[in-house]
Amino acid sequence: MSDATSQFDDLVATLNQFAAPAATEPLAFGDALDSLGHNAYTLTATLAILPFLQPIPLGLFALVGSAAFIALGLQLYKGEANLALPQKIRTVTLSLRMRQALVNTCLNIIRFFRKLSKPRLSFLVEGRTKEKVGGFIFIMVGLLVAIPLGGVVPFKNLFPSLAVLFYCTGEVERDGLMVIFALICLVLTIIFYSLLAYLILKFGVVAFNHFFWK
Asked: Using an 8 Å Cβ cutoff, are 45 and 170 in contact?
């Protein structure tokens, strides 16, 4: 059994544990996070990005997600073994039904991306290089999803979400090409946001809103 297959099976087992009934329901996110063990960075990022994949603007939740990714990124960049999140994020509760829905979605996404991946350019997903690149990606995603666009742009966080999923897949599968795809998604996000900012400045928020929704 290859290292990638072993790590994937380990991730599946950990996710299933995350979705299992707890003694106290609803379960605090911090307590659920503690059960992830050494997979905390990859799984927390994958679970946290799922709400950003849908088209509806997330409002204040986007700021919570932003803070979570910045915290993830800073700690990963520093190479800290144990993941710690702000207390306000740790106390967010997740029902059993919500955890199971998140895990099922997460597993489906991981299996899909896994079909596109194989071990290559492994130097990008090893040691300190992996931690620094991953930390940079998470920090950038945290900053980008926090940028307000007036709540008018559907799927505005698609590229940042893909960046996280590409990186996490690359980390699990030891696929450095996936990490490169993640960095490309960040560049595309910056280009996309810059274009949107230009349109807002040029045509105004009202006209821009009308253009996107009507």
From this structure: no
Integer Cα distance of 141 and 165 in angstroms = 11
Residues 6+ apart with CB under 8 A from 174: 3, 4, 119, 122, 125, 126
Rounded CA-CA distance 201/208 in Å is 9
Q: How confident is the model at residue 87 (pLDDT cuts 50, 70, 90)?
A: confident
Burial class (CB in 10 A: 0-12, 13-18, 19+), 206: exposed
- Of the pLDDT bands very low, low, confident and very high (cuts 50, 70, 90), residue 181 is very high
98-127 exposure pattern, b = at least 16 Cβ within 10 A, e = fewer: ebbebbeebbebbeebbeebeeeeeebbee
End-to-end Cα spacing for the chain: 53
Range of the domain at 90: 3-213
Dihedral over Cα of 100, 169, 185, 37: its sign: positive
Alpha-carbon distance 87 to 89, whole Å?
A: 5
Alpha helix stretches (DSSP H) within the chain: 3-18, 29-34, 40-49, 60-78, 87-90, 96-114, 127-145, 158-173, 176-203, 205-213
* Domain count of the fold of the chain: 1
The confidence score (pLDDT) of residue 141 equals 93
- Full-model pTM: 0.79
For the cut 60, the answer to whether the pLDDT of residue 113 exceeds it is yes
